[in-house]
Structures are given as C-alpha cells and as structure tokens.
From TrEMBL, chain A:
It comes from Actinospica durhamensis. GO terms for biological process: phosphate ion transmembrane transport. One of its GO terms (cellular component) is membrane. The keyword Secreted does not apply. This is Phosphate ABC transporter ATP-binding protein. Keywords: ATP-binding, Nucleotide-binding, Translocase, Transport. GO terms for molecular function: ATP binding; ATP hydrolysis activity; phosphate transmembrane transporter activity. The keyword Ribonucleoprotein does not apply.
TrEMBL record, chain B:
GO terms for molecular function: phosphate transmembrane transporter activity. Signal peptide: none annotated. The gene is pstA. Residues 72-276 form the ABC transmembrane type-1 domain. It comes from Actinospica durhamensis. This is Phosphate transport system permease protein PstA. GO terms for cellular component: plasma membrane. Part of the binding-protein-dependent transport system for phosphate; probably responsible for the translocation of the substrate across the membrane. It is found in: Cell membrane.
Length: 258, 289
C-alpha cells in the first residue's frame, strides 16, 4: 500500500538556523522522486522531515505540513515512532547493527517492535532479502555477522531491513554514494523493482542516477551560505534534464553552477 | 630526490624513538614484575588449600597454620554487594547522562561524579562511619564496608559507562529509530549491546579497584578472626585488612600469612580481569572476533 506525500509550507530549523524554507511538493504513490541540488541545500533535511527523523537531533523544529495520504504527520496526537514504521529510511552510509547477524539485522525492525514467532520471521527475512536482491548471496550464512558483508551488500542489507517492517514509503539518502558502480547498479535495479510496491524518494548527487531511476526530480538550491535552502522546481525527470523551466536548474544540471 | 635514499637523520630519529619507547616500557614493567615476583615468592610459603579454606579462629599469631577463609569470604561478599548496588545504578546514571541528560541536572551529576572520582578512600570510609555507624547507630559489618566501597566504585563505573555509550555511533541509533523502534528499546536492544564489552571491562576495573581498598574496611568491618557469612550483622573479615594486620605483626609466622593473603588478593583480581575479558570477547561484535 504505497502512499502519496503532500508537503506544504515546510520549514525546518536547527536551533535558530533555518535550513529549509517554505517547501511545497507532492510525491505520487508508486513513483520514484529524486532530490538533487548542491551540497548543503537541505535535501537531507527535507527527506528527514518526511519521517520525523529531523526531530531526533536535539534543538530542531519543523513548521508546515506533511500529509501522508490525508494524515498530517505533524498533526496533534501523531506518534513519531508510528510514523517511522510507515515511512522507512535508508542512510548514506550502510549502518547494519554490529552485534547482530544478517538474519537478526533484517528481523530487527520486527523483533525490536515485539514480533515473535520464528516461522513468521523466517518468511519475512527471506522475502525482504529477496526483495533487496541479496538472498542468493547470503542464504548460506544468515547467522554470520552483518558487518562481515561488503559495503554494497551491507547497503542492500539495510534496504532489506527497511522493507522488512513493510513501510508504505521508502526514503533513501544518497544510498549509493559509498558504493562501487556494480553495487550501485544493483541498487538502482532494486529501486526500479521496489517502485511497484513503494513510494520512493531518493537523494542523489549523481545526475545520471537521477535520470535513470526517477520519474520526477526536485531541484533544491541555496542563495548563499547561511541562507535557507529552497525548492527551485519539481517536474517530470525528462523535462528537468532536457528542458527545465528555471535557469538555475539548467545551470546546475549542465555543470555551469555557481 | 632519490626514492631509495633515506636521510641518515631520519633513520637516527626513527631508531632513537624506537629505543626510547622500548626503554620506557621496560622501566614501567620492572616495578610491576618485581612486585609480582616478591609476592609470589614470599606468598607461596603459606599459600595452599588449607590457607584458603580455614580461618584464624583459635589460631595464635605464632602458629604456623591458620588461614584467610574468613577474610576471603568477607571481601567477596562486601565487594559483591557493592557491585550489585553499583552496576545497575551506574548503568542507569550513564544512560541518563548520555541519552537523556540535558541542562542543569546532568551538569550537576557530571560535576559530582568528577568530584567523587578524586575522593580519597579514607574519606568514603569516614563518611559511612559518621552517617551509618555513629549517626544511624548500626554496628560495624561487612555491609557498612560495602556502602563505602559503593561510593568508591560508583564514579569509575558511571564514567566508563558514559564513555562507552558515547562511543556508540549516532548512525546506529538513527538506524533503529528509522525502523520505528522507540527510544528505550533502541537503548536496551541496540545501544547497550553494542557498548557492552567496554562497559563490562569498565565495571571490572571498578571492582578490581575496590577489592584492594584497605582504609574504608579498616574503619567499618570491625575486628574478628572467625568466619561470618552474614554481611549484615557482626564484624566480618576482609582480605586487604588481613594483609595489613598480619604484616604489622612482628612474628614471622604472621608476616608469612600476610604475604599469602596478598597473593590471594592478586589472584582474585587477576581472575576477575580474566572473566571480564572472556565476557567482553564473548559479547563483542562477532565481526571483530
Ligand atoms: N545536525 C545539524 N546541526 C546543525 N545544522 C545542520 C545539521 N545538519 C545539517 N545542518 C545544516 O542544514 C543545512 C542543510 O543540510 P543538509 O544536510 O540537509 O544538506 P544536503 O543538501 O543534504 O547536503 P549534502 O548534499 O552535502 O548531503 C546545511 O546548511 C547544514 O549545515
Ligand atoms: Mg545530505
């Protein structure tokens, strides 16, 4: 059950510093949306407001609305923990739990949330690892530590871990930036598959990657250091790359930036 | 510039740094080895199972037999109780400081932990003496000593727990939050297990520190030559105190017992260290084994 995300008038703060200002955008269910833009323009910050991970950092604050279908994630009475179960996240650096085996890593989200029952878990673990294209590589060593995998395998393990709790939306913050081209391709293929079940938002610095995997692309920019990041435009990916409506987007994409 | 030529001064610097570091190591290790050697040689004379399992009840200082069982039992119980109080308490304080503490209260706690860290053990003993025995009217007992030892172990244990929890990468906590795991489960199931080997080592160092403390037990356990398994009433023996008393005696038989007791104490502490290492190894992230 993929869901639609509707962001309006979103600003986020670190202490008194406003990192992003007045962001409004829509992400359709079962699509891949790419966030691009220069370093520090607030892509990660926007992404982290979508599953209320922003507020994990002390002293942070969010204004505006994030609707998931019709529910405002920042509305009264919303439990951030429940939000994060619905909106999963994969980070830039693979971060498997070092004390856990491959199996335990994938089962972690369920186990830590109190799901017991070996047979249920076995099924979910296999299904998630297959979903993350990792099953064949690890099926004979599920009880070996997750840290013993290669970087690319670890990242796919983290994707398996994220999809094991069956979220509706998957957020990925530069999931391939620490990976070699082959692992990157494996993950891009995976994103294309996952699209049929999930709403996906991916941050990337790699233009070709954005062009390859995404249906829509959002370009963010900052006016200068200390200024908040803003959404310049969001449109169908082919349009953004061939014929953007904003000059800044074209400059950034063609490398005539700054 | 030749790629094969190493300048003579650099070679010299390298060699001298090597020699200085080696010499520093030898100098540091000499006292350690000589202490161990002396204790083993002098302690071996009386050290046997008879010594380990008999007390000094009805033994005169001039007798060549007698043992330290009452003292070993007392020390194990006193240290055990202190550890039983300190370990959960310091875990909770450490978790509070790292995971929840902000502002005044946590600053105050950190400050007092620092102050307690430098507290002389005799002061901890005097404090319990004045509050627990003179103030509240309790008798000298093993438990009174446990209280003083708790005061001494607490800052070490809190500080090491704190440092180990700080070492756990924020990325792991975020990974857990992002799965929709609540904060307290993240702490108990992800953060603590990751930090566990370091925490265990820290606790063991704390226990090793208090096991040899003499000043507080001197003030608090009372005087007895007999076995008393109950730390809550009547005086109880203590190993460091036994070492102290026997070595003060002018009779060679007593001094020999003092050395054997010292050897026992060192062996106990080494055993604890060994156990700590085993636990740390067993619980360490499997990849680093
Ligand atoms: N934990 C933090 N505390 C304070 N300021 C932060 C924090 N994280 C990010 N910022 C600031 O917020 C702004 C946006 O940062 P963000 O990480 O969202 O950028 P980004 O677009 O993801 O950059 P990159 O492409 O380099 O990852 C930056 O100015 C950054 O300095
Ligand atoms: Mg970023």
């Amino acid at each position: 059950m993929a869901k639609r995300i509707d962001v309006s008038g979103l600003s986020a703060y670190y202490g008194s510093v406003r990192a992003i200002e007045d962001i409004s955008l829509t992400v359709e269910p079962r699509t891949v949306t790419a966030f691009i833009g220069p370093s520090g323009c607030g892509k990660s910050t926007v992404l982290r407001t979508l599953n209320r991970m922003h507020e994990v950092i002390p002293g942070t604050r969010v204004e505006g609305k994030v609707l998931l279908d019709d529910v405002d994630l920042y509305g009264p009475g919303i439990d951030p923990v429940a939000v994060r179960r619905t909106v999963g996240m994969v980070f830039q650096r693979p971060n498997p739990f070092p004390t856990m085996s491959i199996y335990e890593n994938v089962a972690a989200g369920l186990r830590l949330n109190g799901v017991r029952g070996k047979s249920d878990l076995d099924g979910v673990v296999e299904h998630s690892l297959r979903g993350a294209n990792l099953w064949n590589e690890v099926k004979d060593r599920l009880n070996k530590p997750g840290m013993g995998l290669s970087g690319g395998q670890q990242q796919r393990l983290c994707i398996a871990r994220a999809i094991a709790v069956s979220p509706e939306v998957l957020l990925m913050d530069e999931p391939c930036s620490a990976l070699d081209p082959i692992s990157t391709l494996a993950i891009e293929d995976l994103i294309a598959q996952l699209k049929s079940e999930y709403t996906i938002v991916i941050v990337t610095h790699n233009m070709q990657q954005a062009a390859r995997v995404s249906d829509r692309t959002a370009f963010f920019n900052i006016a200068g250091t200390g200024e908040p990041g803003k959404l310049i435009e969001i449109d169908e990916t082919p349009r953004i790359f061939a014929n953007p409506s904003q000059r800044a987007t074209e400059d950034y994409i063609t490398g005539r930036f700054g | 510039m030749s790629l094969t030529h190493t300048s003579p001064t650099r070679k010299l610097k390298d060699k001298s740094a090597y020699i200085i570091a080696g010499a520093a190591f030898v100098i540091a290790i000499i006292p350690l080895i000589s202490i161990l050697w002396t204790v083993i040689v002098k302690g071996a004379k009386d050290f046997d199972t008879y010594f380990l399992f008999h007390s000094m009840r009805n033994v005169a200082e001039s007798d060549s037999f007698g043992g330290a069982y009452h003292a070993i039992l007392g020390t194990l119980e006193q240290v055990g109780i202190a550890a039983l109080i300190t370990i959960p308490l310091s875990l909770m304080v450490g978790i509070y400081l790292v995971e929840y503490g902000r502002g005044r209260l946590s600053q105050a706690v950190t400050f007092f932990v620092d102050v307690m860290m430098g507290l002389p053990s005799i002061v901890a003993g005097l404090f319990i003496l004045s509050v627990w025995i003179l103030g509240a009217g309790f008798q000298a007992s093993g438990f009174a000593a446990s209280l003083a030892l708790t005061i001494l172990m607490l800052p070490v244990a809190v500080r090491s727990t704190e440092e180990m929890l700080k070492l756990v990468s924020p990325a792991l906590r975020e990974a857990s939050y992002a799965l929709g795991v609540p904060k307290w489960r993240t702490i108990t199931k992800v953060v603590l297990p990751t930090a566990l080997p370091g925490i265990v080592t820290g606790m063991m160092l704390g226990i090793a520190r208090i096991m040899g403390e003499t000043a507080p037990v001197l003030l608090l356990v009372g005087v007895t030559q007999s076995i008393n398994g109950n730390p809550f009433s009547e005086p109880q023996g203590s190993l460091p105190l036994f070492v102290f008393n026997e070595s003060q005696n002018s009779l060679q038989t007593a001094v020999d017992r003092g050395w054997a007791a010292a050897l026992t104490l060192i062996i106990l502490i080494m055993l604890l260290n060994l156990i700590a290492r085993l636990i740390a190894w067993w619980k360490a992230p499997a990849a680093s084994r």
